[in-house]
Amino acid sequence: MSAGREQEQGAGERAALVGRPVDRVDGPLKVCGQAKYVADVAVPGLVHATMVLSTVSRARVRRIDTTAATALPGVLCVMTHENAPRLPEGGRAAIKPPAGRTLALLQDDQVHYDRQPIAVVVAESLEVSRHAARLLQVDYEPLETALDFEAGKVGAHPPKEAQGQTPDSVRGDVAPHWNAAAHRVEAVYTTPTEHHNPLETHATLAQWHGERLTLHDSTQYVYGVQTSVAKTLGIAPEQVQVINPYVGGAFGSKGSTWSHVVLCAMAARAVGRPVRLVVERPQMFGPVGNRPRTEQHLRLASDTAGHLTAVQHDVWAETSRIEDWLETSALLTRMLYSCENVATSHRLVGLDIPVPTFQRAPGESTGSFALESALDELAVAAGVDPLAMRLLNHADRDEHKQLPFSSKSLRACYEQGAAAFGWSRRDPRPARQRDGDWQVGYGMGTATYPSKRMAAEASACWRPDGSVLVRCATHDLGTGTYTALSQVAADTLGLPLRCVQVEIGDSALPQAPVSGGSMTIASVAPAVQDACRAALARLVELALGDAASPLYQVPHERVQCVGGRLCRRDDPAQGESVAALLARHPGQRVEARARSQPGAEARAYSRHAFGAVFAEVRVDRDLGEIRVPRLVGAFAVGRLLNEKTGRSQLLGGMVWGVSMALHEHTLRDPRYGRVVNANLAEYHVPVNADIGKIELIVVPEDDPHVNPLGAKGVGEIGITGVVGAIANAVYHATGQRVRELPITLDRLI
Ligand code: MOS
């Protein structure tokens, strides 16, 4: 774009770039292979570590015979519980979930789950370390093992909390309204254990410089890794720097500090060399978290017209016996629909399995499948159209928190989604629509995800050429953070995009929260905006006090920056380029730092994004094959800062919804607890041929309360709603209700 047009569209505080489908600023680096991921980082003297994982679920390690491995030329170290350095508090000094998890750091002989780290082999080459790892002879003493979910339910225990809320909730009185209801649905829905599999597996490179540790680590939380590794090793946080400019996907799996990070640092210290440890694909199915299995009991009751009169949602979720982690599936049931009588509960089933963790829309993804399915069943029972059912029960305020929503455009999502989908053409009777051998069904579901925000800091510094360096210890998980922050900074400063450089992914930068919970932009962009405003104000001060500047002694409020030029608002011809001003002040640092945090709005409003998803499903009447040729998703997510990367996030979420509905399922051998499909050949995710047409509607929404940019998160809401919509469409196509994910053909024939 020419400078002239850019000026015409106005810069300064007026949005010129925000909202536009700007290409990724890091795109060229990525396609040229110049974006360095952890496994690409080369340092002199680098050696390679391979983790050895347990092959049983609960045992004591009697002995590990390392003779053959140690004898292999090129092997530098074989670390087991017998020779690993002792850590403060047995390696448990940093346990403070969710950032600090219960780790396996070779401090004792106990095995608590399948694929628990039990040794680390370090060698000159990756090949030798992998080969040596396979030469270890491990002798286990089997211990009594709890693997049965049904049996475990008997001793289920309440979690301490549910993402900051109480695990149980009650409003009104469910029992009498349940008993007196005109229509009732009572059903059990189950979701399986699932594993995130970002393209880039977890990886760490650890390098000691005396007592200082540099970690290149693929993480969603550089600051969290810095503090939890320091605590675990018993050193000061200032001694640890965590670097991570690019992340090849994460989805929650990289939100915590897992065992391999600390083990890599321990190995590097042991061999006195920089060590790289890349988690192998099958190792992703053990020590780095996963979505836990849930069993959800739903009771929904309505009056004759379909108004909800009682809702009960009881969740049992698996966790590890060594650590509680809760999938908060019933949280959305507290606020999604209007009903006076609502009770929810969460219970944990402790098993000898790995510790679960956040996986894209933890809670809302699994919970919305159950709730949206049950509501569909109630609509059928009441003889009400599923969309009409949702409109009847629309919640105008958050009835759990008893707060207004900061904004809610769900009605518009229903309306626009239904129109685009052609919902009105749906025959209300199930198993009536046919196309040759295909049974055709339409289903829908509501999408929702909280719009969170945490405190963050950022800095902005002018460079002599008139460009600005913006810095913040946040992350780009492939999501578009670099680009969106560049847009926000450029608009705030009145600069073209190319004059802004964003530096992130380093714990030495101004502090930012975990890039999880769909809150990166909501947390970090306001800090970037504030830092840029302050840096611009300092620059203007410099000009106003400079007798050589055409802006000398002009009142501050009369000055603006447009296209990299400072000028008078009332007479733009009067001014000078930023570079010309700075050239007269060589060596002067013009910079600012800002901290931005949620204010009173966090207590005054309930903040959520909403959406509506419509699915067309085709089921082969003989073979049970299930296809999803068409999805329509209408989402209201506040202000979308970048139409291209934002839509990509929503689309990616919807694809994952198809995956969750039809494909993903981690299978454990019930006898030994060993995952039997720990690879991407047998752990099914969709390929291109599995994904049909996806139409995405972003409903405009102005939210003055949610954060200064009015941007709700888009990372996770895309997966919610889709799963229920597909399950409901399968019912509509076939007349068969599948309450167990994934919905596979064997459940339909
Ligand atoms: Mo998300 S599951 O909080 O990375």
CATH class label of the domain at 400-452 and 603-747: Alpha Beta
Q: Say what the CATH topology of the domain at 400-452 and 603-747 is.
A: Aldehyde Oxidoreductase, domain 4
The CATH superfamily of the domain at 400-452 and 603-747 is Aldehyde oxidase/xanthine dehydrogenase, molybdopterin binding domain
Unreliable residue stretches: 1-13
Say which molecules are bound, naming each kind only once. dioxothiomolybdenum(VI) ion
Number of E-type strands: 29
Output the structural class. alpha+beta
Helix content: 10-25%
Pfam families: Ald_Xan_dh_C, MoCoBD_1, MoCoBD_2
GO molecular function, one term: oxidoreductase activity
Organism: Caldimonas brevitalea
Protein name: Acylaldehyde oxidase
Short description:
By secondary structure, this protein is of the alpha+beta class.
Describe the structure.
- With 749 residues, this protein is of the alpha+beta class.
- Among the domains are: 3-33 and 455-597, Aldehyde oxidase/xanthine dehydrogenase, molybdopterin binding domain (Aldehyde Oxidoreductase, domain 4); 400-452 and 603-747, Aldehyde oxidase/xanthine dehydrogenase, molybdopterin binding domain (Aldehyde Oxidoreductase, domain 4, 2-Layer Sandwich), CATH 3.30.365.10.
- Helices cover 24% and strands 24% of the residues.
- Strands 3-5-1-12-9-10-11 form a 7-stranded mixed β-sheet. Strands 7-15-14-13-8 form a 5-stranded mixed β-sheet.
- Helix 16 packs across helix 17.
- Residues 1-13 have low confidence and may be disordered.
- Bound molecules: dioxothiomolybdenum(VI) ion (MOS).
- Dioxothiomolybdenum(VI) ion (MOS) binds next to loops.
